[in-house]
């Protein structure tokens, strides 16, 4: 879908909010370029709807439809988490809500590090009415910054309404990410000159190809499910000589979640590819392309054998392939999933009550 066409629903939604201002603004990366970011806001919206509170999504950022360009009211706001613990998005919040931080709750945020944040951003985080992080490390990071009272809660996407789908037999779902790879006009090549990083892209690509080919030889269907446009482009190159069913990127949460839920096994790379598979209880095998995936594994107790680290793939991709071919995948037990979903919804309710 054309970049500008994807912005049309955002502009339409903002125009509607100008006409009928919602009680609570849900602020996040709702740019439709990453379906995982859309799931964060939809998870919050689903809880507010149950509480009979009207809400509208607003895009954090500096683009043509960002907070600074479309300021709608100065009322209550819930920031819908994700990797927003950086100076640029926090500065956008300070500019709009710096004088009224008590009107703001932040749920499920994560940080790259505690470096590079201005005093104004740190003071804002300290002053908001409610603050939670989606992994324990970030709670510790905030404590080191002198910000007390931050809570842990799993990713907001766990709050999405529960839907049941019929699972296909012998259907492998895959999600790929062009980590440390760049398009040179002919194909993807290593894009990182660091000795420790450069081997990952080619080794990761070979691992994906071998896993997909072996499943096909064993009589499985293999489908790639993109969570961004770039995932779609990279997959078309990775699997160009392999008969993998390639889905088109869809920024809508429900179709993407349904595609994951119908698989009988799933190999995830993007963070929310993990979350969707875990929520749908599809056996998950994980490529940890970023620390947030490793932290999720630690928080949930996913066995080491079911996640391949960046270093493992780079140094011995063949061993990762053998391991993944012999593993069924990790499934969240019913009771643990129910507890997680309930705790995430309660976390959002608590945030709402804090600003009410």
Could you describe the 3D structure shown?
With 356 residues, the protein is an alpha/beta fold. The protein folds into two domains: 151 residues, Rossmann fold; 163 residues, Rossmann fold. It is 44% helix and 16% strand. The protein contains twelve helices and 15 strands. Strands 1, 2, 3, 4, 5, 6 and 7 form a seven-stranded parallel sheet that branches. It has a six-stranded parallel sheet with strand order 12-11-8-13-14-15, with helices on both faces. Helix 7 links the parallel strand 11 and strand 12. It is globular. The mean pLDDT is 91.
Give a short overview:
This is Polysaccharide pyruvyl transferase domain-containing protein. This protein has helices spanning 3-19, 35-50, 87-97, 119-127, 136-144, 200-217, 229-238, 253-261, 271-280, 291-300, 310-326, 334-355, and strands at 24-28, 55-59, 76-79, 82-85, 104-111, 130-133, 151-152, 171-174, 181-183, 188-190, 221-224, 245-246, 265-268, 284-287, 307-308.
List the helices and strands and how they pair.
Layout: H1 3-19, E1 24-28, H2 35-50, E2 55-59, E3 76-79, E4 82-85, H3 87-97, E5 104-111, H4 119-127, E6 130-133, H5 136-144, E7 151-152, E8 171-174, E9 181-183, E10 188-190, H6 200-217, E11 221-224, H7 229-238, E12 245-246, H8 253-261, E13 265-268, H9 271-280, E14 284-287, H10 291-300, E15 307-308, H11 310-326, H12 334-355
Parallel strand pairs: 1-2, 1-3, 3-5, 4-5, 5-6, 6-7, 8-11, 8-13, 11-12, 13-14, 14-15
Antiparallel strand pairs: 9-10
Helix pairs in contact: 2-12, 6-11
Organism: Longimonas halophila
Pfam families: PS_pyruv_trans
Protein name: Polysaccharide pyruvyl transferase domain-containing protein
